[in-house]
Amino acid sequence: MDNLLPLFINGDFIKSKSKEYLKVTNPVTQEILSQVPCATNDEINKAVASASEAFISWKETPPPERARLMMTYQSLLKEHQEELAEILSKENGKTLEDAKGDVWRGIEVVEQAANISPMLMGETLENVAREIDSYSYVQPLGVCAGITPFNFPAMIPLWMFPMAIACGNTFLLKPSEQDPMTPNRLAELFVEAGAPKGILQVIHGAKEQVDGILTHPDIKAISFVGSVPVGQYIYKTGTENLKRVQAFAGAKNHMVIMPDADKQRTIDNLVGASVGAAGQRCMAISVAIFVGKSKEWIEDVKQEMEKVNPGPWDSSKSGFGPLISKAAKERVLSLIETGKSEAKCLL
């Protein structure tokens, strides 16, 4: 089938030899956009071996040269922002404007990666003790890996691999299997920017592939963004295998509304934060606490929420798009029913 998504290994997009593929669907229409492979152990090993080999020369590449690669890359991302946003919207469901923001926030990180040189400077201190000078170097670790979630398929991969690579590491990316087309396009543009073979690999799959990354002896560090249970599992398993792990899990913003706040701006911000990415993000304001007279605004919040309409990504009338999957929708409907049975006051 021509809609099989490739892996990106050793500088080439290749068809996986896996017999297990997962469907990538448009959340609005349920149309099958592509099928994503669950990479084999052999393919994961080949990707890590390629990254390990590339690290030998990449770590010796001067930081200004690495920075120039990022300069070219951020320029290409800006040229293709609209295209990336459309791919993202089709597979994730976000409105086009929301998707553009997703891409742009990633571009800002690549811009920072283009300024990597001063961030890699070490420190010296003469005569830290009698006849002893102290100095430090900032050195790359080796092969790093990123495991990223579905809700920001452009921004979060771009949080990870540009900075890691600019620091002299090589990188293996395992994006969400629910919207993997956007990360693949990011990799294509990275090649177009002039990235040397092997410094970036893209492996697709689910838990089995994540386990292969967590336990691989040649991967030195792992970065993760996602849910609390998965974050705990990744942190525990990764550190048990002697890897450096950063796991950002389950973030949810809380909002305290004081009575002297600007009423309309507060309501607009609360509603906007709640519906962005269909509420599937840390900025979704799961808890809003109204203090004093601001409690009188709760009915106004309800009225503003009623004005925001869900819809397809390419409609100017859509205030937000659908949830990522049928399972996510069923979960939300279940939570609403629980709220109806337990809450004394439900808007």
From TrEMBL:
Question: What GO molecular functions are on record for this protein?
Answer: methylmalonate-semialdehyde dehydrogenase (acylating, NAD) activity
Might you name a Gene Ontology BP term for this protein?
A: L-valine catabolic process
**Enzyme Commission (EC) number:** 1.2.1.27
Tell me yes or no: is Magnesium among this UniProt entry's keywords: no
Q: Which family does it belong to?
A: Belongs to the aldehyde dehydrogenase family.
Q: Which EC class is the enzyme in?
A: oxidoreductase
- Entry keywords, A to Z: NAD, Oxidoreductase
What's the protein called, per UniProt? methylmalonate-semialdehyde dehydrogenase (CoA acylating)
Query: InterPro entries annotated for this entry?
Result: Ald_DH/histidinol_DH, Ald_DH_C, Ald_DH_CS_CYS, Ald_DH_N, Aldehyde_DH_dom, MeMal-semiAld_DH
Record-annotated membrane-spanning stretches: none
Q: Where are the coiled-coil regions? A: none
Domain Aldehyde dehydrogenase per the UniProt entry, residue ranges: 13-345
Pfam family example for this protein? Aldedh
